[in-house]
Amino acid sequence: MPLPAPQARKQLHTRNVVFRGYQRDDRLWDIEAELLDKKSKVFDIPGERTWLPGEPVHNMVIRVTINDAFVVQELAVAMDGSPHAECPQSQAPLQSMIGCTMGRGWRQAIERNMGGIRGCAHLRELLFNMATAAFQTVSQELAEGDVNQPPAHLGKCLAWDFNGDAVKRHYPVFYGLNKGNNP
């Protein structure tokens, strides 16, 4: 169902964020995130530069390599577009995320390692959501081998309530199993 019709308006900004997940031949996983910001009209930051309509103000890509336990093994970043000369300096702190686990405490690890003035808000935003993309990429592949454990996404949202119809339809063996995430 589409959104209701909006009031008269004009578009000023577009942010595209894309996440991609890959299984590598060496059994590691690459999760990539890309952020692209564009303005619909001339955009000027005095003392920096002027961007033409459609020209990227932000163009950033992160690749995080994880193992089956979601532990970060490698991290690469590219900032092909950023509004300030200082922005590329925020790439180095990302290396402190190597060894961190995309799971419980992931957001706290990001803030601890590259929060505030140690890093870039846009790169942090990508990292926050890369954990979800990693889960979407890796969990189904790993879950196929263990039929005795409920998939990790069960009990994490309304649709996947252990007592709900979706679990009853798709994972009947786990239907009714209360995992402490249900009220």
Low-confidence stretches: none
Q: How does the major sheet shape up?
A: 4 strands, antiparallel
Tally of separate domains: 2
Widest beta sheet: strand line-up = 1-2-5-6
The SS-based structural class is alpha+beta
**Element order, helices and strands?**
EEEEEEHHH
Mean pLDDT: 91
Estimate percent helicity. 10-25%
Terminal-residue CA separation: 29 Å
Radius of gyration, whole Å: 20 Å
Please, how many helices? 3
Task: Report strand %.
Answer: 25-35%
Principal-axes shape call: globular
- Tally the beta strands: 6
Protein described:
The chain has 183 residues and is an alpha+beta fold. The chain folds into two domains: 13-145; 147-183, no CATH class. 21% of the residues lie in helices and 27% in strands. It has three helices and six strands, in the order E-E-E-E-E-E-H-H-H. It has helices at residues 106-114, 121-143, 165-170; strands at residues 13-23, 29-39, 43-45, 49-51, 56-66, 72-81. A four-stranded antiparallel beta sheet has the order 1-2-5-6. A two-stranded antiparallel sheet has the order 3-4. Strand 3 (43-45) and strand 4 form a beta hairpin. Helix 1 runs antiparallel to helix 2.
Give a brief outline of the structure.
The protein has helices at residues 106-114, 121-143, 165-170, and strands at residues 13-23, 29-39, 43-45, 49-51, 56-66, 72-81. 21% of the residues lie in helices and 27% in strands.
